[in-house]
């Protein structure tokens, strides 16, 4: 055919036909609709069903929201204003917001303290979540727990200081002795820290908290969404080291240690969190020395930490198992002993691939902190089910309160899970 | 407060507390605070108000004890407890006394080893039904669905009542009063049953209280009172006589208004003994001489507490009934102060 | 440090306990054993001292005392004179019932939502994404409370069915949807072959088993013929007959009839009642866990390589057959392990029944029994024991199933 190209044939067009626009059904909105919503009969029906559902939901919710009333002092006043129209009574949120967020006992002139602690937490957690930030920031992360404790509970600054000193001394001891023998450094460090805490505790004069810079707040007075956040953050951060230890223990070839770890993990994973909270609220008190009582908050933290540690241990075990065997063998062939191999080669990689899984556990755990409302702690749900719904003014306001609680949790959890997905994509590229 | 060696820094941080084994009274004095167990929220008896202050009739008892022991009605830590956690909290020493609608029963007294120091409210289990059902007696409730607020001895009384009258029912046990109310108002149950005082308190919060009636049957005896651990009789005496001081004060006409002049000395020796201007009752209890005066000043005498929190002038609107002084035909009776 | 160049006359030195790898693990285990024993001794000693101080003891004798309370939802005979142990058993059965039902419906919700989320219909996939995100990111406790409130506040009470100007009516005059539960007609036999209703139903079951066995034999034969001759004989009508003829005959002989629920007194009477708390808990758990399963299903389908889909399409299979015959069977291997843990989560989350007044084991043994007897330690331990054995049992069964569908490699 190519040789006949020069022959001009009468019916062959010589000039290019001007481009005409594509048919209407292949452009713009119509094309998009056709391809994405009505590509087949089934799809068309599905679309219509979905549209109908959306319409139903929106037509029920939107008037309710837009007719909402924000300024009354009780449900009865809301009902008076609405005169039988559909409409929300958001006044309960404006009137009781401080109870929903901080609980009903936290001193109202101290609200800046948890707020500041929250802001600082974002700063402290940033270097852990984003690897590109300067590593020096981790120093602040290490200091943060003590700062946050002092901000939220107040009282004498000596208490967090003693705790900090205990950790610093233990760390220093480990630096010095851990080089020659890991076991000596590790166990010696623990013993030294315990000594520092006990002695320090005895040295602090009684009543040191009475006239402290920040007035002391007993942990019973913590409540609202703040309590959920605190439980979530405390328990997850405490459970990560414990989870690592459990995961390593479960992989260990020492039968006794492996046995203890397996029994612990499977036991905790086999029972619902609520039974563990019952243990904290009705049983654990019997297991502490007779002459002392331990705060309910601390007992709950202990149980939730054990709970999340078991789940995190399984995630980390997955991370350890996902590492190629060559990594273990390479560490051995370099002559590293077990602690060195773990610290320098295995754990940094295994933890990195476990982060998305850990974040998922953290989200789940944060949601589960609402269960403490069942054991008479006034977290966000506890505040709603307890004092607010029981009060004369707001008895009968359900949707507004539950909606608010759901919204708060959704914002936080969705944010975290978006981070986890971002991280997963990022780690995936790294390979 | 004695610092427990085991917990060192924890104690300082306020997350753990050591307690001297000497006795609850000494513990409370050393701590400077009374730990008092209350409900998680029952309007009129114990509930936090919009400012987070605990208010109510049971709360008043706690404050009176704190005032008697420490001289300060504000020196109370209120520990909210549920039906499940209350007994452990008391037995394990987390709270010093429990002032929560807890019925005095044989097994709680004997088997669970608690000491009920008295009765601050004589209650009984009742029924509430919507008026439109046209029910006038609990015996007409055959086949009804009954919402029960769990916690006191409610479920057991109910089972006994329906069993002995040979009629059937469907129980719906609910944890909190607010949820039981939601169920009842939505018509998910025909009847709501709990202590009659609780029913009155609940009905008072309804949009239209007159559309609901309380049935005449009271199917149980519910003597509600503060309780302490077995075995610490000294502390039990303190709580018992603080409660009795409130009752005697009403009987003798001592109110928070006139207590100032009465404390200067009166012609009635019993008032003088109660308020500490005569005799040494306070010393016998291990308290200051003006303990009785402090207890009454905390929130007024028994009658004032009743009227201020659950009486007829409040939304709850309970009549004194059984809870009138014995001189007025009620059951409220205090042994003499001598 | 021992090395190969050390003289072989090694005698045991104390430092070898820490430095020699042969002994070190023994040292650590000994330390661990001592620490464990100390911890147990410490806690046990505290417990004994505390109990003695409070004058209490640990004993399970209370389990045989009469419980004294009634339970509305029960699968076995129970009344207020039955023992606490029987109340606990009622609770256990109720827990298992709602867990079983919720596992089935959660799987259905999850598979539908997971498949639809990958649909090329933009709107549908967005709606499903919304469903998944909103349920995954809000605590199940709040969902249970919300759904329970919907159940009680939005559904009509039996009162609204009453009178001449009733605001609600029964669907088809057969079903009643109320906020106390759903009432459906109950089949029964007017002249059953046995006096006992249960025996009649056992008979029906036996007949069904027989039919199933017969159809299996027929299909087997058809498959054999197909293998021999390449032509599969038609079995549809035979199978249909095998199923329907004995069944209809049996129903006719025994006189099948329906008991329709009707409003009598305070409640609907007759028919089968599915209680409101059961429905609320069942639905809340299914729709919540369904969102998680949807994500697993989506991940499983996406894990099947695109080449499989394309190969199937190249063979001329239609879209739904590609999904059923090629993609889902392969995706199943990825889906099942997380599915097991979701089933376990459902079982554990049934303990939230306490919020809706459903009488599961947490509400009977860990609720009213604990409340009334004050035996906290015993009740909580028994409860944990039950959940632990249920979890272990479920994971064992599911692991057996998992290994049976796992890729068989040579």
Shape of chain A: globular
Tell me the span between the first and last alpha carbons of chain C. 46 Å
Low-confidence stretches of chain A: none
Radius of gyration of chain A: 30 Å
CATH topology of the largest domain in chain C: MetI-like fold
Total number of distinct structural domains of chain C: 2
The percentage helix of chain C is: 55-70%
Task: List the total number of helices of chain A.
Answer: 16
Round the Cα radius of gyration of chain C to an integer and report it: 30 Å
Biggest beta sheet attributes of chain A: none
Q: Main beta sheet of chain C, described? A: 3 strands, antiparallel
**Helix-strand string of chain C:** HHHHHEEEHHEEEEHHHHH
Order of helices and strands of chain A: HHHHHHHHHHHEHHHHH
The level 1 CATH classification of the domain at 217-430 in chain A is Mainly Alpha
CATH architecture of the largest domain in chain C: Orthogonal Bundle
CATH superfamily of the largest domain in chain C: MetI-like
Secondary structure class of chain A reads mainly alpha
Q: What would you give as the CATH superfamily of the domain at 217-430 in chain A?
A: MetI-like
Number of strands of chain C: 7
């Amino acid at each position: 055919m190519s040789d006949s190209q020069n022959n001009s044939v009468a019916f062959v067009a010589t000039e290019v036909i001007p481009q005409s626009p594509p048919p209407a059904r292949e452009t713009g909105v119509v094309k998009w609709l056709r391809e994405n919503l009505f590509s087949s009969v089934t799809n068309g029906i599905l679309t219509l069903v979905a549209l109908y559902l959306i319409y139903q939901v929106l037509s029920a919710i939107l008037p309710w929201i837009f007719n909402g009333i924000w300024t009354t002092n009780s449900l009865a006043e809301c009902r008076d204003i609405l005169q039988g129209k559909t409409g929300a009574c958001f006044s309960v949120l404006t009137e009781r917001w401080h109870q929903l967020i901080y609980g009903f006992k936290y001193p109202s002139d101290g609200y800046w303290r948890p707020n500041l602690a929250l802001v600082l937490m974002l700063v402290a957690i940033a270097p852990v979540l984003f690897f590109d930030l300067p590593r020096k920031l981790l120093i602040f992360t290490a200091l943060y727990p003590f700062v946050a404790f002092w901000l939220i509970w107040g009282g004498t600054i000596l208490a967090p200081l003693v705790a900090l000193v205990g950790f610093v001394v233990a760390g220093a001891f480990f630096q010095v002795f851990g080089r020659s023998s890991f076991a000596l450094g590790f166990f010696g460090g623990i013993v030294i820290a315990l000594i520092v805490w006990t002695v320090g505790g005895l040295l602090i004069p009684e009543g040191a908290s009475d006239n402290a810079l920040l007035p002391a707040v007993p942990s019973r007075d913590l409540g609202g969404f703040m309590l959920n956040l605190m439980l979530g953050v405390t328990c997850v951060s405490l459970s990560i080291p414990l989870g690592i230890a459990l995961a390593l223990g479960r992989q260990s070839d020492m039968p006794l240690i492996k046995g203890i770890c397996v029994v612990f993990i499977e036991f905790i994973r086999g029972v619902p969190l609520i039974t563990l909270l019952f243990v904290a609220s009705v049983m654990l008190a019997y297991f502490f020395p007779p002459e002392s009582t331990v705060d309910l908050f601390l007992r709950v933290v202990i149980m939730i930490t054990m709970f999340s540690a078991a789940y995190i241990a399984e995630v980390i075990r997955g991370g350890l198992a996902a590492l190629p065997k060559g990594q273990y063998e390479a560490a051995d062939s370099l002559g590293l002993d077990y602690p060195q191999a773990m610290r320098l080669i295995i754990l940094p990689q295994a933890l990195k691939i476990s982060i998305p899984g850990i974040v998922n556990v953290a989200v789940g755990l944060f949601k589960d902190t609402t269960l403490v409302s069942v054991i008479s702690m006034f977290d966000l749900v506890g505040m709603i089910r307890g004092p607010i719904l029981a009060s004369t003014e707001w008895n009968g306001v359900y949707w507004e309160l539950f909606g608010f609680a759901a919204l708060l949790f959704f914002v936080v959890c969705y944010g975290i899970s978006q981070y986890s997905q971002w991280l997963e994509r990022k780690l995936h590229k790294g390979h | 407060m004695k610092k427990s060696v085991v917990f060192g820094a924890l104690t300082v941080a306020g997350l753990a507390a050591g307690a001297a084994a000497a006795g609850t009274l000494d513990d409370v004095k050393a701590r400077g605070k009374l730990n008092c167990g209350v409900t998680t929220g029952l309007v009129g008896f114990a509930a936090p108000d919009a400012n987070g202050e605990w208010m109510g009739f049971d709360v008043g008892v706690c404050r009176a004890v704190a005032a008697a022991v420490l001289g300060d009605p504000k020196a109370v830590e209120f520990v909210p407890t549920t039906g499940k956690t209350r007994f452990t909290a008391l037995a394990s020493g987390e709270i010093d006394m429990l002032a929560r609608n807890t019925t005095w029963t044989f097994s709680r007294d004997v088997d669970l080893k608690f000491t009920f120091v008295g009765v601050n409210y004589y209650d009984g289990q009742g029924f509430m039904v919507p008026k439109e059902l046209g029910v006038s007696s609990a015996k007409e409730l055959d086949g009804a669905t009954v919402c029960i607020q769990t916690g006191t001895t409610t479920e057991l009384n109910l089972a006994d009542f329906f069993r002995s009258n040979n009629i059937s029912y469907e129980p719906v046990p609910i944890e909190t009063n607010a949820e039981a109310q939601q169920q009842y108002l939505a018509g998910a149950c025909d009847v709501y049953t709990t202590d009659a005082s609780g029913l009155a308190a609940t009905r008072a919060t309804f949009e239209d209280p007159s559309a609901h009636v309380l049935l005449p049957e009271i199917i149980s005896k519910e003597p509600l009172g503060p309780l302490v651990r077995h075995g610490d009789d000294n502390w039990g005496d303190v709580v018992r006589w603080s409660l009795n001081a409130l009752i005697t004060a009403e009987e003798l006409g001592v109110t928070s208004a006139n207590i100032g002049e009465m404390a200067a000395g009166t012609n009635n020796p019993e008032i003088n003994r109660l308020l500490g201007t005569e005799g040494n009752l306070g010393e016998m209890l291990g308290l200051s001489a003006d303990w009785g005066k402090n207890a009454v000043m905390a929130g007024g005498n028994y009658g004032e507490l009743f009227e201020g929190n659950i009486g007829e002038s409040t939304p709850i609107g309970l009549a004194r009934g059984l809870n009138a002084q014995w001189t007025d035909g009620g059951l409220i009776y205090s042994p003499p102060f001598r | 440090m021992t090395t190969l160049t050390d003289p072989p006359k090694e005698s045991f030195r104390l430092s070898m306990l820490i430095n020699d790898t042969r002994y070190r693990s023994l040292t650590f285990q000994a330390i661990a054993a001592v620490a464990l024993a100390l911890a147990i001794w410490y806690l046990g000693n505290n417990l004994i001292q505390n109990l003695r101080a409070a004058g209490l003891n640990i004993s399970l004798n209370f389990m045989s005392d009469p419980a004294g309370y009634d339970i509305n939802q029960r699968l076995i005979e129970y009344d207020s004179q039955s023992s606490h142990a029987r109340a606990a058993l009622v609770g256990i059965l109720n827990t298992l019932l709602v867990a079983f039902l919720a596992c089935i419906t959660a799987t259905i919700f999850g598979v539908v939502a997971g498949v639809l989320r990958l649909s090329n219909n933009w709107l549908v996939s967005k709606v499903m994404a919304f469903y998944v995100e909103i349920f995954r990111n809000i605590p199940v406790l709040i969902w249970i409370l919300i759904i329970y409130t919907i159940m009680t506040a939005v559904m009509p009470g039996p009162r609204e069915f009453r009178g001449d100007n009733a605001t609600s009516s029964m669907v088809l005059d057969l079903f009643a949807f109320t906020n106390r539960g759903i009432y459906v007609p109950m089949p029964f036999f007017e002249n059953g072959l046995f006096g006992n209703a249960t025996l009649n139903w056992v008979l029906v079951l036996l007949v069904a088993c027989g039919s199933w066995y017969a159809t299996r034999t027929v299909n087997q034969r058809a498959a054999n013929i197909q293998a021999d001759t390449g032509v599969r004989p038609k079995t549809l009508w035979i199978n249909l007959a095998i199923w329907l003829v004995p069944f209809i005959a049996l129903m006719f002989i025994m006189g099948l009839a329906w008991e329709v629920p009707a409003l009598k007194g305070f409640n609907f009477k007759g028919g089968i009642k599915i209680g409101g708390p059961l429905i609320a808990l069942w639905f809340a758990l299914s729709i919540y866990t369904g969102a998680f399963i949807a994500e697993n299903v989506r991940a499983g389908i996406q894990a099947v390589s695109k080449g499989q889909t394309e190969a199937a399409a190249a063979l001329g299979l239609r879209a739904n057959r590609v999904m059923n015959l090629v993609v889902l069977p392969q995706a199943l291997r990825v889906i099942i392990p997380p599915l097991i843990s979701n089933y376990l989560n459902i079982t554990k989350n049934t303990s939230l029944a306490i919020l809706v007044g459903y009488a599961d084991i947490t509400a009977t043994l860990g609720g009213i029994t604990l409340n009334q007897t004050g035996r906290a330690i015993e009740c909580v331990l028994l409860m944990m024991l039950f959940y632990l054995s249920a979890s272990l049992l479920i994971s064992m069964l599911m692991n057996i199933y998992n290994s049976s569908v796992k890729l068989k490699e040579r």
